[in-house]
UniProtKB/TrEMBL annotation, chain A:
Record's keyword terms, sorted: Transcription, Transcription regulation
Species this protein is from: Zingiber officinale (Ginger)
GO-annotated biological processes: regulation of DNA-templated transcription
Pfam families: IBH1_N
UniProt-listed PANTHER family: TRANSCRIPTION FACTOR IBH1, TRANSCRIPTION FACTOR IBH1-LIKE 1
InterPro entries documented for this protein: IBH1-like (IPR044660), IBH1_N (IPR059002)
Ranges of residues in domain IBH1-like N-terminal: 29-82
Identification of the protein by name: IBH1-like N-terminal domain-containing protein
Record carries keyword Transferase: no
Top-level lineage group: Eukaryota
From TrEMBL, chain B:
GO cellular component terms, A-Z: nucleus
PANTHER family: BHLH TRANSCRIPTION FACTOR (PTHR12565:SF184), STEROL REGULATORY ELEMENT-BINDING PROTEIN (PTHR12565)
CDD domains: bHLH_AtBPE_like
SUPFAM superfamilies attached to this UniProt entry: HLH, helix-loop-helix DNA-binding domain
Disordered: region residues: 1-60, 210-261
Ranges of compositional bias, category Basic and acidic residues: 1-16, 249-261
Classification via InterPro entries: bHLH_dom (IPR011598), bHLH_ZIP_TF (IPR024097), HLH_DNA-bd_sf (IPR036638)
Name of the featured protein: BHLH domain-containing protein
Amino acid sequence: MYRRSFKDTKSSLGSPNPNFSKPMVALRFLRALSLVRCSGPGARSPSYRARGIRRAAYACMAASAGPRRAWSRALLRKIRRRPGRGLRRPRAVIRRRRPVGGGDPLEVALRRLVPGGGCMEYCRLLEEAADYVKCLAMQVRLMQTIVDSASHVNSID
Amino acid sequence: MDMHEKDQCHSLKSEDNLEYSNPGNSSFLLPNNPSIRSVSGNSSVTIGQANQSGPFSSSSIPMDDPFSIGFWNQSTKPTDLDLCKNNSPACSNPVNGNSSLNVEWNSSDSFSIGGTLLQAANLSHFPADKAFAGRPARLSCFTNSSIDGMMSPFSLAQSASLCANATLGDESGAQIEKNKEHKNNFDGVVVSSDHPSSCIALGAVKRKRNTEDMPLDQAQEASHVSREMEENLEFEQNAEPNSPSVVTDKPRGKQVKDSNESLKDEFIHIRARRGQATNSHSLAERVRREKINERMKLLQDLVPGKAVMLDEIINYVQSLQQQVEFLSMKLAAINPRLGIDIDSVLSKYLLQSYNGTSGAMAFPSSSVHPPVHTSQQGLVQAGLQVMANPPDSLGRSMNIQLAAVHEYKESKMQVSNSWEEGLQGVMQMAYSNNVNLNARGL
């Protein structure tokens, strides 16, 4: 279901802008949200739904960030990998271009935080981290807004 | 020097915001004195200088011959504009889509330094014959040595002063002073930051960012830089103290090329960075360090509050991720009752927008809200937009729903961000749809 949600989102909304556009993320996320919930609200526990929503959030974020970003690619790969697809890309992605010596604990921690951070050089890592932080912050703001408006609507009724 | 480097990094960050003027055409080689004066007035490295010589050197690396020869040959003629025109298309080509780089050529002084030095060399002061005579001689020497060496702003200045000094049969005192002044200024330019390498590094950085290339390019450019540096230092060593005030310590032990022997007497003394090795390795490292510093600054700018260490950045990222988790849990708890209709509404809405003529339909919130700062009016306009387009049944239903939403408007709060307003508008639509449909369903 989550796969479907993500794929549908991507196909229907077209290719994302290379620039990060907020309305794209918002609509995409809302779409994904609705798809997450359509599995049957009563059938699933809130925690299950929460996980699905989180996954959808990351997927939307990565999808709207564009495939040019290493972290978005890695994030999508991580999200899609869960169903255990048999289909592997014919061209081998060269992972572990430079395995980290792990001298700096800060750097190691950053690599763990940023998706796809294990294979990058340090300055590339910093660049990706900056972009990731930006998108994350936007995603958080988006979700906060949704929650606020949802609670507001709920309080009205 | 560090400050300047950081400034360079900053400027790199903000390169998109630089005002774009016509690159190189008019002010590249100004025959006027104002540019000269501006050079002399500018004793400290400015950001623009670094940026300019960056693209200059970086663009020069791929294309040496046409630029150099054309440059030098044409510079002797009073038609500077032609030179500029030859320069800008030639130079702009190898630079990968860096219009910003070309632009920055114009916007500040370091380019004009080379240009004005050239002019000081020949245009207004010397008879053209001498300039013509002197130039090709120097040119040949330079081409022998290395074309890369020619291309650096160093070598430009050097060659300019070379020509200037060489062709001077009789230097006026004012002329000498002017040259020295330029040299000094250029020295100031060069010295105060790691100029050529940083310029090239910055150019490399810019190119990197645009093309996302491998570090091989860096190494190549670093090696280019190192060659240039070596040659510049060679020049320094060979030079007779022409401007005694500027002589400083130069690293010894560089090999001298024979072609440069004849140029001993007329070199500019350029201060190398004190205690800095000019290996290709260290240069590349310096490039890399600057890159890293620049990225760190980017990161620190993104993180709210003071983030001196990477530690705080990591904490911030972790907190953001935790917030995502928390909000997702909250969303899961708070919205069990949203039905499938949102999906259909949204998808069809979007499909309509994509099929329809006005792309603004897709994001009525985003397109409408910026001029309007109340969610209510935005919704009205969104509704108007919807009604304007040929309505199918869905469209009509959406219009109806929008009208229904209108009733909710008064209760909605004002949000500062326009896009959040838009989001709220969309949310209101969705919720109103849901409410209506639920009401109808029940």
